[in-house]
Design brief:
The structure is a homodimer.
Chain A: E1 2-6, H1 12-15, H2 23-32, E2 45-47, H3 54-64, E3 72-74, H4 88-91, H5 94-107, E4 109-114, H6 119-127, H7 137-141, H8 144-149, H9 151-161, E5 168-171, H10 174-184, E6 192-196, E7 205-209, E8 222-224, H11 228-242, E9 250-254, E10 260-268, E11 273-281, E12 290-292, H12 302-318, E13 323-331, E14 337-343, H13 350-360, H14 364-367, E15 369-377, H15 381-390, E16 402-408, E17 416-423, H16 426-442
Parallel strand pairs in A: 1-2, 1-4, 2-3, 7-8
Antiparallel strand pairs in A: 5-9, 6-7, 6-9, 10-11, 10-13, 11-12, 12-15, 13-14, 15-17, 16-17
Helix pairs in contact in A: 10-11
């Protein structure tokens, strides 16, 4: 029972043309590929877009208690896409395939766990002779990954399952979108959000508002359109971008200011839908990373969100999908919790759930809080870990709490990445977070 | 319990740009809208693209035993699309909407039954205040009709449900399609079929073959590509058409010569999936119309086809779709029965199933055979019916057998359309069919 992890954090089936992505962003998500290292167990294989430092791999293995030498990390040769992207030409490169085939045989791999199961992974799975043992391969092999990655599909399935979503619709007519947005939202003083059908992490979304000052959470920017003419002009200017050059429909929804983004995660197996955990995006002081479990789980309406997530997963399961599903929602100030997206792939939370389960067991969300700190600068890894130890806040196997360096820049200088801060309560986690800032700034 | 039928036989969400359709074809399918008249019962309303002759309506009502004056047929004003198309501008025309609203109130309509539940019908349903009583409205209102009309969605769902389909894949890369078609089919001497993601009745399909003489059943034409270069050239020439201008993916499948096209139909309600009937396209002497039930139902593998249809309907039901689903397949000479499409809308068989059930009950497929004759010329309607009577082959309520004029050209001259021939056995039906040809050619 060994697994082949493939950390393809961005694929063209997720985001469209990979060539238009900013190189710095590609390196950023390429480094984030290291998150999947935290899901490894003895015997697993991991394919990363960029070779991590040996010290980082040693650190992960030691923290997870992996038998030294039992796991391997492979990095395919460079390809046509920007650095950080595990593009099709890299993964299907014949020389890499030969190496991978040997490694798969040596490790006795019987499960393929990519970040996103796109058509490249489907082909790779066939090349490795693992199609027959991959649950849900049929759907994924026939474009199911793309189907389920569509925000339009989400709207349809959510409506079919009776799950509460923001008022909105799916459309490919600019005129209709203009009419709808104006009549339904803007003329009533409500902002709206426009979403490209295929994209991730808000990079295909824009907020439009009839007034200034709307914070575009989960979107690239917010644009003020005070009149129907301004709205028409905005849509004319952005239609090509919104529809990916006229290829796709767009989703238009009401946008709820001052709402809290929530997420919940599930694993779909042949037999069941398993709830894995929930979390919340941190809004203060700036939007940066998650807290798991979601502090707003205390709200009396929170259980409905988990039920709605299970309902959606029922539909997705009926389609034949097997694997991770993350369900996103917003806790609004006026309309309760509204589900606004699902993703049928590994999420930005999966590694935290795996880590939490690994250190304290299935019920870890009752016993620990994990805070994610992204885009952090720190000294070279060995030094950073030493400082954390010196201050008594490094992750400790005895207390099963403390600070973990979850991602470290794979470039020559390191010193940049992400932490996971583990504590028994949110207050303790926030105190640890404060100490991280202090000790590593002073070191 | 009265129903509003809307015979929108072609929508832009089914076929893409309606403006490119041939005007004669639009009139042809516009007339076929009359098939829905055969689904009516007392109190129903029917919206047609073209006004039928009063004599035709009287004939349908009399044949179905409808109380005179209890049903109404409405035709909206002309619009921008070719004659025969119930386009959005026609259905949502304010003056028509006012008339329709009154008629809906007068008839106590509580169910909307369009040919295709597209976004126009969704808006119309809301305008009429019927959204809340329409099962499955949530999914349909959020673009579910388009989602389920996609041939790519079919491939994914069929694979997810483990239903046997022709070897094939879904792709948006010309290079990949070329590689796949050549390596998998053409270089082995097998023809293939390429399908646009959104189209109907084979109008978006082409067969490619490494040899001459392949009959393109369910496709526009067959093209010979003997070498990989010829294949590459063909794909370069037709890529724009195949992908609807680069908007959509295409489906590429193995094509089975000399196979028999089958169909089965189901109704999905909130509680259940009901099997409605099955049929077969007639291949001899030319492909023209159906036989219901399918003569090949005698085959020992036929029940698997119905089970596969039920399996697919289970997935579609889980998505929240309610209404008619037709499932298409081919009975091959070498690979058993392979399912190759579903359509979540009223089909070209629905009126025959309704008629059969109406005249002999739920088990009509055990007691009657219906043959469809399309594209027939006949004298003006009154005269045609008289001739059928004179020859003793007109539909008779006593024997519940005979010939029905199912569609009559709505143009000023009439004299063109479709028959349904009802008999107790296929041999009797074919004898009636022969007599129709003789007596109406001589009249």
């Amino acid at each position: 029972m060994s697994r082949l992890f493939i950390s393809n954090q961005r694929t063209d089936e997720m985001v469209g043309d990979l060539g238009v992505l900013d190189p710095e962003y590609c390196r950023y998500v390429g480094n984030q590929g290291q998150r999947m290292a935290w899901c490894m167990r003895d015997g697993d294989l991991l394919v990363l877009p960029m070779a991590p430092h040996a010290a980082f791999l040693g650190y992960v293995s030691e923290t997870l208690g992996i038998t030294p030498g039992s796991v391997d990390v492979l990095v395919p040769p460079e390809g046509g896409a920007p650095e950080g992207i595990l593009s099709s030409d890299r993964l299907l490169d014949p020389s890499f395939l030969a190496v991978l085939r040997d490694a798969v045989a040596a490790h006795g791999i019987d499960e393929v766990v990519p970040f996103h199961f796109d058509s490249t992974i489907s082909r790779l799975t066939e090349e490795l002779g693992l199609a027959d043992v991959t649950p849900g391969f049929g759907l994924l092999d026939q474009g199911g990954g793309r189907l389920l990655n569509s925000k339009a599909t989400f709207r349809a399935l959510a409506a079919g399952a009776g799950v509460p979503v923001p008022d909105g619709f799916v459309c490919d007519s600019r005129k209709e979108v203009e009419r709808y947005l104006w009549e339904r939202f803007l003329s009533h003083g409500h902002p709206a959000i426009l979403k490209q059908d295929y994209h991730v992490a808000g990079f295909g979304n824009e907020v439009i508002s009839p007034f200034e000052g709307v914070d575009p959470v989960g979107a690239l920017r917010s644009v003020v359109t005070r009149s129907r003419d301004e709205l028409a002009k905005y849509l004319a200017d952005r239609w090509h971008w919104l529809t990916d050059g006229g290829r796709n429909r767009i989703v238009a929804e009401r946008y709820f200011e001052n709402s809290t983004p929530l997420c919940a995660e599930f694993r779909l197996t042949d037999d069941s839908v398993v709830f894995l955990g929930h979390g919340e995006m941190r809004m203060q002081p700036v939007l940066n990373g998650h807290i798991w479990p979601a502090p707003s789980a205390d709200s009396p309406i929170f259980p409905d969100f988990i039920s709605d997530g299970l309902g959606l997963c029922g539909s997705i399961h009926a389609l034949g999908y097997r694997g991770i599903v993350s369900v996103d929602a917003v806790l609004t100030t006026t309309h309760g919790i509204l589900v606004n997206e699902f993703n049928c792939r590994v999420s930005g939370s999966t590694h935290a759930y795996e880590f939490g389960r690994g250190i304290v067991g299935e019920d870890w969300q009752d016993r620990r809080v994990i805070i994610e700190m992204r885009r952090c600068s720190f000294p070279p890894l060995d030094r950073a870990i030493q400082v954390l130890h010196d201050h008594g806040i490094a992750f400790d196997h005895g207390t099963r709490s403390g600070v973990v360096v979850a991602v470290e820049d794979a470039g020559p200088n390191g010193g940049y990445g992400e932490y996971l801060v583990v504590a028994e309560s949110l207050a303790q986690a926030e105190e640890l977070e404060r100490q991280v800032g202090t000790c590593l700034l002073l070191s």
